[in-house]
């Protein structure tokens, strides 16, 4: 097979993928000091004006309160642009940040792990028209570690403290060390963007990155799941439709309480407690008088909500058979790969060969195989697609499923080759 032109980036220097052996400089204070948090409309408009008068791309970041609050809303938004300095904005005090979004206009946003921040920024009226994702750029460049701290060390030689990354950003007032951390996070984005862009260009991958960044502009968040309660940790040990009903009803009750109190569902009742209660009562003939759990760390939540839990379990045990959940949802895609050999040995052989070919090219290009083509998309195509597709047919099919042009240029010939070969005996 003749390798397509896109398969020929410039040769990578061995040291390009390894952290540099150098002394790191701790980054402890923003160059302009820690800015005051914007908490009123007048100051917000002043921030918007300053950002509009700045030049170049805009570093953007958001802090959420994952594990503390319900949902993924932003509790602090950080921005920095050349000529305007850094701004820290409280989106709780100023819930409409559309003036800031309008001030940025068509300028490029610089984000790190854009899919984490884009949905919560859209909720406050900020949507990019162009962006550069430094984390995704690092993946395409072949870096083994793509966290912000690791990439700042690799490219800039700076050590960025990350001890406040998992704090409760809904707390008010926000402590000065947290604000310092937040300002530093956005301060490094401009220099990091330039370094990543230079490496992508040197490796011949800048066009690939541009396609990925354009694709991200339409990202609105993960697709909602059918029956999200089925992902409760530990429920694989629950047996029977009645047990599943207990899980479902407890999950729905917990979600309602968490939403009403604006707290993380796991703080109301951990998954492990839901599964254990369901297992203990899934064959009960009558409602229990008390519920207990074996692990001390779960007992406090159960005791606190004892009456409500008993009521929910009683309701689940009382449901008619017609209202019980089915044991499993009908399949909405290919079966798990481990089942392919029994259900379709030819397709299983194609999948194994495609994985082998993609893995080899992934190593050659120093790009994670999941960035070349997501495993789900590969499985869907091989399970649903034609038996012996041409390269053009594979490219068309993968594109229809959402693959980008650079991905299909690289992977379509390989998938076609995997489908054309005889399966191993």
UniProtKB/TrEMBL annotation:
**Organism encoding this protein:** Terrabacter aeriphilus
Q: Which InterPro entries match?
A: 3'-5'_exonuclease_dom (IPR002562), Exo_C (IPR041605), HRDC-like_sf (IPR010997), HRDC_dom (IPR002121), HRDC_dom_sf (IPR044876), RNase_D-like (IPR051086), RNaseH-like_sf (IPR012337), RNaseH_sf (IPR036397)
Against CDD domains, the record matches this protein to: RNaseD_exo
Gene3D superfamilies, A to Z: HRDC domain, Ribonuclease H-like superfamily/Ribonuclease H
The segment(s) forming the HRDC domain are 240-323
Query: Can you name this protein?
Result: Ribonuclease D
Alphabetized SUPFAM superfamilies for the sequence: HRDC-like, Ribonuclease H-like
Q: Which PROSITE patterns match?
A: HRDC (PS50967)
């Amino acid at each position: 097979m003749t390798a397509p032109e896109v398969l020929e980036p410039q040769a990578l220097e061995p040291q390009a993928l390894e952290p540099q052996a150098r002394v790191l400089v701790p980054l402890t204070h923003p160059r302009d000091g820690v800015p005051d948090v914007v908490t009123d409309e007048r100051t917000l408009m002043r921030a918007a004006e300053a950002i509009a008068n700045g030049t170049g791309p805009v570093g953007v970041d958001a802090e959420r309160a994952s594990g503390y609050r319900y949902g993924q809303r932003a509790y602090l938004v950080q921005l920095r642009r050349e000529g305007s300095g850094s701004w820290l904005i409280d989106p709780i005090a100023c819930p409409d940040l559309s003036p800031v979004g309008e001030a940025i206009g068509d300028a490029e946003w610089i984000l790190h792990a854009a899919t984490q921040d884009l949905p919560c920024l859209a909720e406050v009226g900020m949507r990019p028209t162009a962006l550069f994702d430094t984390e995704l750029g690092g993946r395409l460049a072949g870096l083994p570690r793509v966290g912000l701290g690791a990439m700042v060390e690799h490219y800039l030689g700076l050590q960025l403290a990350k001890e406040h990354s998992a704090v409760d950003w809904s707390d008010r007032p926000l402590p000065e060390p947290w604000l310092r951390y937040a300002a530093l996070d956005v301060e490094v984005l401009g220099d990091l963007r330039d370094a990543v862009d230079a490496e992508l260009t040197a490796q011949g991958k800048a066009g690939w990155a541009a396609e990925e960044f354009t694709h991200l502009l339409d990202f609105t968040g993960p697709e909602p799941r059918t029956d999200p309660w089925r992902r409760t940790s530990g429920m694989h040990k629950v047996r029977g439709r009645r047990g599943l009903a207990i899980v479902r009803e407890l999950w729905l009750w917990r979600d309602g309480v968490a939403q009403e109190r604006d707290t993380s569902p796991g703080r109301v009742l951990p998954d492990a407690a839901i599964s254990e209660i369901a297992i203990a009562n899934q064959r009960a003939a009558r409602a229990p008088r008390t519920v207990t759990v074996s692990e001390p760390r779960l007992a406090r939540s159960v005791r606190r909500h004892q009456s409500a839990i008993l009521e929910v379990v009683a309701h689940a045990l009382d449901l008619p058979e017609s209202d019980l959940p089915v044991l499993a949802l009908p399949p909405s895609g290919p079966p798990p790969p481990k089942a392919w050999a029994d259900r379709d040995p030819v397709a299983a052989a194609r999948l194994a060969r495609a994985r082998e070919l993609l893995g080899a090219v992934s190593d050659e290009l120093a790009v994670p195989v999941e960035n070349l083509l997501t495993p789900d998309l590969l499985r869907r195509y091989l399970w649903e697609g034609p038996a012996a597709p041409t390269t053009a047919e594979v490219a068309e099919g993968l594109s229809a499923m959402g693959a980008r042009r650079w991905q299909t240029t690289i992977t379509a010939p390989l998938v076609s080759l995997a489908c054309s070969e005889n399966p191993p005996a």
